[in-house]
Design a protein that fits this description.
The chain is an alpha+beta fold. Helices cover 53% and strands 21% of the residues. It is elongated and about 65 Å long.
């Protein structure tokens, strides 16, 4: 029987809850998360099936002050696993929980994390889009000898636009759900 397993599973930066549910299902099936690598490669080792809750936090300040950040969660019984792409991964056995526990104590702290994701990940993409992709597309679009580059930047333009629309819809849905 295999002792290690690698799976590809892609989650967008706003799908942190779906990613946590996926990791919980894997642990319930007897696969313990070892690490995540880009782009969406999850490495697991075989373990005893167990009910474990996974939580992800996006907090650059926490990563910058790693010792205090990890200790704060450890004091509440959460095991720190690792950081990947700005997210910190934590887990806790259901046996140690009293009811439904999460690393966020209320909806306002969840909204704060969504805002950190926006300013840490989406805003830089938006700046790249506005300062890089659009001007480049505009410059190459009107030069006869660089039509190929205009097509390339046109493709980037529409990919970025689709990403922004997708993220904006996810952000809006999560924000509306948390505000209720």
């Amino acid at each position: 029987m295999k002792e290690r397993k690698t799976e590809f599973h892609f989650f967008t930066i706003m799908e942190y809850e779906e990613e946590a549910a996926y990791l919980q299902d894997m642990r319930r099936s007897g696969w313990k998360l070892e690490k995540v690598t880009f782009p969406g490669i999850y490495r697991f080792t075989r373990c005893q099936p167990e009910e474990v809750v996974y939580q992800l936090d996006y907090n650059q300040d926490g990563i910058a002050n790693k010792e205090e950040y990890v200790q704060m969660f450890s004091d509440c019984g959460w095991e720190y696993l690792f950081d990947f792409m700005g997210y910190s991964y934590f887990c806790k056995s259901r046996e140690l929980m009293t009811g439904r526990e999460e690393i966020f104590c209320d909806d306002q702290s969840r909204l704060d994390m969504i805002k950190r994701i926006f300013f840490g990940r989406i805003l830089p993409l938006l700046v790249t889009f506005l300062c890089g992709i659009i001007p480049s597309f505009y410059c190459f679009a009107f030069q006869e000898e660089n039509r190929t580059w205009a097509v390339v930047f046109g493709i980037f333009f529409f990919l970025y636009l689709a990403l922004f629309i997708h993220y904006a819809l996810q952000f809006y849905r999560i924000r509306q759900r948390l505000k209720r």
